[in-house]
Design brief:
The chain is 32% helix and 25% strand. By secondary structure, it is of the alpha+beta class. Strand 3 and strand 4 (44-48) form a beta hairpin. It is globular.
């Protein structure tokens, strides 16, 4: 990976794991700790980062055009065959680029990694995925239509609503036999359908890129010019495993602060408590984040797929004990 990126003009960076804000995504739980300064009274709460995203974007603002990082990241309450509380994340960012450039990066990177690992295909649980074959590209709306028989965007009456009413999507889910519970939000039902009918089918034979997410799921990505119903975000799938999540970056500090407020309120409602906002990051956006694109890829998941093993712990030197 280092050869791949250095050969394309990227600089490897290393940003601190200790951050004022670990990230605002409401469903990711951080680890908190205390920082005590010599001779100072008391301590202040910091967090182990769940992603180096905020710090790396500050470097884009500072003028670095192409950067990558292999970072140890920390997420509490996560453990499964493809999740671990501490793992390695590959992130890279490009100024003057958008998510389509990152799609090309992904194609080149996975082919290079397969060659370096000496494998013809990635394998998991009897499924094969050859990155040398033509890749499949599906919009989220196309995937819901072709694999679940649902017109997804028609279930969102107002594309500016960050939390759409769930009734229309719930009715569609029940029609195709996917159960819904009282109190499910639109996003809950989206993931229930995706996990049941869509994600398990992605990335067979060749990798699949699922792109153009509904605007209410934009996260840190910008709206798509010409179609405000969706955002320039994609996820990469191999053998049914989500491998990467990418954005054409949102550069508007006002809109970013609004989204942080929405996510903070949602976290408080669902889990109790609030996380601090990284005001330094918002100041960097106000100073001027260039048009850019960024992506996070699960390094350990990629190694798992290259090794043909079933669980992430099989490729960790010393897994965090249960």
């Amino acid at each position: 990976m280092r050869r791949f990126f250095s050969g394309r003009g990227f600089v490897e960076v290393e940003t601190p794991a200790l951050q004022t804000s670990p990230g605002i995504e409401p469903h990711i739980q951080p680890f908190a700790t205390e920082l005590r300064e010599p001779f100072a009274q008391g301590a202040r709460t910091l967090y182990l980062h769940t992603s180096p995203e905020f710090a790396m974007k500050k470097l884009l603002v500072a003028g670095m055009p192409r950067i990558f990082q292999l970072a140890r990241v920390f997420r509490n309450g996560e453990r499964s065959d493809t999740h671990h509380p501490e793992f390695t994340m590959l992130e890279w960012y490009r100024s003057g680029a958008d998510y389509r450039d990152l799609m090309t990066d992904c194609e080149d990177l996975l082919r290079s990694c397969a060659d370096a690992a000496g494998v013809a295909a990635f394998v998991r649980r009897g499924r094969r995925c050859d990155p040398g074959l033509p890749w499949r590209f599906l919009t989220v709306a196309e995937a819901f239509r072709s694999l679940a028989d649902i017109d997804l965007l028609a279930t969102v009456a107002d594309p500016d609503d960050p939390d759409p009413p769930p009734a229309a999507l719930a009715a569609e889910a029940r029609r195709i036999g996917v159960s819904c519970a009282d109190g499910d939000r639109w996003e809950d039902i989206f993931f229930r359908i995706a996990l049941d009918r869509i994600e398990p089918l992605l990335g067979d034979g060749a990798p699949t890129i699922l792109h153009d997410y509904p605007a209410c799921m934009a996260a840190l990505s910008r709206r798509k010019p010409g179609d405000a119903r969706v955002a320039e975000r994609f996820e990469l799938y191999v053998c049914g495993v989500e491998l990467a999540n990418a954005f054409s970056e949102l550069t508007d500090p006002v809109e970013q602060r609004r989204r942080f407020a929405v996510d903070t309120a949602l976290r408080e409602r669902l889990y109790g408590g609030r996380l601090p906002v990284d005001e330094d990051f918002l100041s960097a956006l106000a100073f001027g984040l260039p048009a850019s694109a960024g992506i996070a890829l699960g390094f350990d998941r990629l190694v798992m797929l290259a090794a043909g093993v079933e669980t992430i712990e099989e490729v960790l030197w010393a897994p965090v004990a249960e």
